[in-house]
């Protein structure tokens, strides 16, 4: 059976101060803070999720904010650049918005598309590209109205220790289509219209080191729980060591490290972020899984405040 992922489910990164993180992704970029919870493996830190109005797969950027953590180095074995996609014709809006918040950016082009490249406050490399594909976000916040809002992921650029092996995995195991090669990048695409374009940098960079300003892992979509079990079997039969299924509350997850040393996750589309709070209340309060609820006071006492707020530049 040929397995084909629909594309990116989410991307998870390590950053610093949580309020700085929320101010940038909600306040500057206008995304919705759809879930405020903790790292289930390390409850002393937040796990923050940003996306479109419903936090749909293909839109979800997630963060572990560790104040005071050491700075990481972006390099091979990591996602090098995370791409967001905006509606066609809105790049000028985003140029003006980044300038308004003193975010330095560069204009670049790749595979016939124009990009705005910039860093977040903690050093993550980001870019914005405009495309007609993909439904528009319905979320407005601060100075970002829905008509200009980030739709979700445009894709990602992978920095592999073995680019050709990573490329073969994307094509032969994950089921992406190889589109072409240009300027030191191999481009792949999936069937989805968000989170669907993956570029593999063919230059091998020095190994990355984990820390603030780096991506921890990239997650791919499984349509449901049955499909997820099929992916687990498929990945194992393809020669990769894969974890057991882990319940992450808002999706089930399996993990494996590919030959280019990038950590891959495969996550289920269901059950989503309304599992434990209403659509209207998402992202406002700290949500804990049942096994951590008895420790709520201790957890809350150890966390710095973090909330989505309109920044003074937009008031």
Automatic annotation (TrEMBL):
Cited Gene3D superfamilies: 2,3-Dihydroxybiphenyl 1,2-Dioxygenase, domain 1 (3.10.180.10)
This protein's name: Ring-cleaving dioxygenase
Tree of life domain: Bacteria
GO molecular function, one term: dioxygenase activity
Pfam families per the UniProt record, alphabetical: Glyoxalase (PF00903)
TM segment ranges: none
Keywords: Dioxygenase, Oxidoreductase
């Amino acid at each position: 059976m040929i397995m084909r992922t629909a594309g990116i489910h989410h991307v998870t990164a390590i950053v610093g101060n949580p309020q700085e993180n929320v101010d940038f992704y909600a306040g500057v970029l206008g995304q919705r803070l759809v879930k405020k919870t903790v790292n289930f493996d390390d409850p002393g830190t937040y796990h923050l999720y940003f996306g479109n109005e419903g936090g749909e797969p293909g839109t979800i950027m997630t963060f572990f904010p560790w104040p005071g953590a050491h700075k990481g180095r972006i390099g091979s074995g990591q996602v090098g650049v995370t791409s967001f996609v905006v509606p066609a014709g809105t790049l000028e809006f985003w140029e003006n918005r980044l300038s308004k918040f003193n975010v330095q950016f560069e204009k670049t082009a790749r595979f016939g598309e124009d990009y705005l490249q910039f860093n977040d406050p903690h050093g993550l490399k980001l870019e914005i590209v405009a495309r007609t594909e993909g439904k528009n976000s319905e979320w407005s916040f601060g100075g970002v109205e829905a008509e200009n809002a980030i739709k979700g992921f445009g894709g990602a650029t992978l920095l592999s220790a073995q680019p050709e092996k990573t490329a073969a995995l994307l094509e032969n195991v994950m089921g992406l289509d190889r589109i072409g090669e240009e300027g030191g990048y191999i481009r792949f695409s999936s069937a989805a219209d968000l989170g669907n374009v993956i570029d593999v940098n063919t230059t091998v960079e020095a190994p990355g080191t984990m820390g603030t300003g780096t991506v921890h892992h990239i997650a791919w979509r499984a349509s449901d729980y049955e499909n997820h079990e099929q992916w687990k079997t498929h990945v194992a039969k393809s020669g990769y060591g894969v974890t057991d299924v882990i319940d992450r509350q808002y999706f089930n997850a399996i993990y494996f490290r590919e030959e280019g040393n990038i950590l891959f996750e495969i996550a289920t589309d269901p059950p989503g972020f309304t599992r434990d709070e209403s659509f209207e209340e998402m992202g406002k309060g700290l949500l804990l899984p049942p096994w951590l609820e008895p420790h709520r006071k201790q957890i809350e006492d150890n966390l710095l405040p973090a909330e989505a707020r309109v920044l003074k530049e937009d008031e």
